[in-house]
Amino acid sequence: MAKSDKDLHAMLDAPLKKARESLTGKMLTTDEFGQDRVPKAYNELTTRELHILAESLCVRLNLF
């Protein structure tokens, strides 16, 4: 009768996942040395690059 949270999340998140990954890949515009970098697809981002993005967002949102 009722769907689990996992099923609902999968159903509602599916259309947004591709857009969210595309946006994330475009957010990192410079490397740690300030040099411009070519936008990458989400699945091509390294752990270091994802860490830089998360750190930057947290600071801007005053989460620390």
Question: How would you portray this structure in words?
Answer:
The protein has 64 residues and is mainly alpha-helical. The protein has one domain. Helices cover 58% and strands 0% of the residues. The mean pLDDT is 82.
Sketch the major β-sheet: none
Low-confidence stretches: none
Give the overall average pLDDT: 82
Along the chain, the helix and strand elements come as HH
Going by helix content, strand content and strand pairing, the class is mainly alpha
According to DSSP, the number of beta strands is 0
Report how far the terminal alpha carbons are from each other.
41 Å
Number of H/I helices: 2
Shape: elongated
Using only C-alpha atoms, the radius of gyration works out to 15 Å
**Share of residues in helices:** 55-70%
Q: DSSP strand (E) fraction?
A: under 5%
The overall number of domains is 1
Main attributes?
64 residues; mainly alpha; 2 helices; single chain
